UniProtKB/TrEMBL annotation, chains A, B:
This is Thiamine-monophosphate kinase. Reaction mechanism of ThiL seems to utilize a direct, inline transfer of the gamma-phosphate of ATP to TMP rather than a phosphorylated enzyme intermediate. It comes from the Bacteria. HAMAP family: TMP_kinase (MF_02128). Belongs to the thiamine-monophosphate kinase family. One of its GO terms (biological process) is thiamine diphosphate biosynthetic process. InterPro entries: PurM-like_C_dom (IPR010918), PurM-like_C_sf (IPR036676), PurM-like_N (IPR016188), PurM-like_N_sf (IPR036921), ThiL-like (IPR006283). It comes from Stenotrophobium rhamnosiphilum. Mg(2+) 2 binds at residues 45, 73. Catalyzes the ATP-dependent phosphorylation of thiamine-monophosphate (TMP) to form thiamine-pyrophosphate (TPP), the active form of vitamin B1. Mg(2+) 1 binds at residues 44-45, 120.
């Protein structure tokens, strides 16, 4: 039995076939049924061992994270996640590794109600490419180019935990919870769906707030002021990180996979209330300005000098 | 400028945006418009250097072939090819290589009217994963499980050329045409569309006729007799290969990317006439039997002993 058959076998046990999969794995193509009136949202991301996750990452977490980073892109469009394909390159056939990888992947797939509909395996240094597909009613997708002047800039959850975990990797007192923020990010699918008819623009925070928000500003032709004192931090983050040190992790650390959304000020309360239903916080961290560029202000309103470049892969 | 931006730049020059791409590369997801009443056909294939193509293959041809093998799967479903994503892992940033790769990829994309809608690049040993998407009217897709007893088993084009080219790689008199059969296969998209309402079952020949046809037989719960003397050969193939040697190349050599289809006998002439319009031959090579299993018969009707296993990747 080859690797992909093993993965499939594991999936078959855990994920019931969805009604929108007319034909699953086993023919030349899968056949999928998008709902009438909806358009297809498609994204693809490759994760390479040692570059996108630490080499010693548990296979369960690698499976989870490979899917999570792709679902996060669907979340940022306000799309309903539905299907994905998997291309897995492995240095060797290790059945235990594959089972654990498949378990992490299928746990998130089951939780997110997405179906594995195709894939391929190859021999080589460990890397995973997933293409995730979702659907969204025509015209309803959240894009990067819709931010409007005076919008509130908001983020879900807390920032900087993944970057902190990465920094603390070698320390023995790195907690399981903090490590999980790096290894098993939660794609904010429900939040994306809930904010779809409220938010003007959205992006997921994969490379760090500074770089990712800059994409929204560029696409929308606007600027933003971000109030550093408002950046949401977890209790663990506050415990480990001195305030002087927090900003670099929260603005330029990647891998948080929270959503950053721009919302009209009068809609903020409703947006926050919608996310509170499923225990996701929404924090206002700044506002969109007509003056272009991204400015970070300290508690006294003084601009903090900071190059607005997030982590960029493969330069 | 990173590698993917380079590829994108090259694509922008060559492929006009299609009407079914509502939002292309540059946001969290692409947004795509499937036609009303059609379902989505999705396939993904990884090509690894030295495994799926010779390491010395020209980058133009690598780009072409990476897309071709995926489009071939869409062809086998009778789908209209529309979109694809690209994940490219490269050992080094070589601009000339990337441009040539993009040129090969975009030449086939333009010819096949498919749009690049997303992608990612990473550093590592050369491998390419493409996910190709097409659409097909609900209920009209060609599957592997529809072969019926007494159907004619047919193949497009000629068989064995790619396997022969692979064998002759080191020989200086390997012709450009023969080499192209290995390096730049033609996905039979037009043939798949033309046979969609005639054929009962179809598969593309990626791993060799013996193995691929066995999948159709297994899925359909039938068997087949194949008459070896009828297997279509190119003039070059006949020139190089002794008849005693031909069978192994034609039945077990992979990479032909022709279609194998099962058609009611009375429909064969119409099917062949439809393909003749765009210069693709269709050859009847055998018939579907109620007795399961795959039998190859010589010109005297005597069974040829042959294990029905095509080339399998990564065992």
């Amino acid at each position: 039995m080859d690797e992909f058959s093993l993965i499939q076998k594991y999936f078959a046990q855990l994920t019931a076939p969805a009604g929108d999969v007319l034909l699953g794995i086993g023919d030349d193509c899968a056949l999928l049924q998008p709902p009438a009136g909806e358009v297809l949202a498609v994204t693809t991301d490759t994760l390479v061992s040692g570059r996108h996750f630490p080499v010693e990452t548990a296979p369960y977490d690698i499976g989870w994270k490979s899917l999570a980073v792709n679902l996060s892109d669907l979340a940022a469009m306000g799309a309903q996640a539905r299907w994905f394909t998997l291309a897995l390159t492995l240095p060797e056939a290790n059945q235990t590794w594959i089972q654990e990888f498949a378990r992490g992947l299928s746990d998130l797939a089951a939780q997110s109600k997405v179906a594995l509909v195709g894939g391929d395996t190859a021999r080589g240094p460990l890397s995973i490419t997933i293409t995730a597909m979702g659907t969204v009613p025509a015209g309803a997708a959240l894009k990067r180019n819709g931010a409007q002047i005076d919008d509130v800039v908001c983020v879900t959850g807390t920032l900087g935990d993944a970057a902190l975990a990465l920094r603390l990797l070698s320390e023995s007192d790195l907690s399981t919870d903090l490590r999980a923020r790096l290894d098993r990010p939660t794609p904010r699918l429900a939040a994306g769906l809930a904010l779809r008819d409220i938010a003007h623009a959205a992006i997921d925070l994969s490379d760090g707030l500074a770089g990712d928000l800059a994409h929204v500003l560029d696409a929308s032709g606007v600027g933003a002021e971000i109030y550093s004192a408002r950046l949401p931090s977890s209790l663990e983050f506050k415990k480990y990180v001195a305030p002087t040190d927090a900003l670099a992790l929260q603005l330029q650390g990647g891998d948080d996979y929270e959503l950053c959304v721009c919302i009209a000020p009068e809609k903020f309360d409703e947006a926050a209330a919608r996310l509170a239903v499923f225990d996701v916080s929404l924090t206002s961290i700044g506002r969109i300005t007509s003056e272009t560029g991204l400015r970070f202000l300290d508690a006294n309103g003084v601009t903090i000098p900071l190059a607005p470049n997030g982590y960029r892969h493969f330069q």
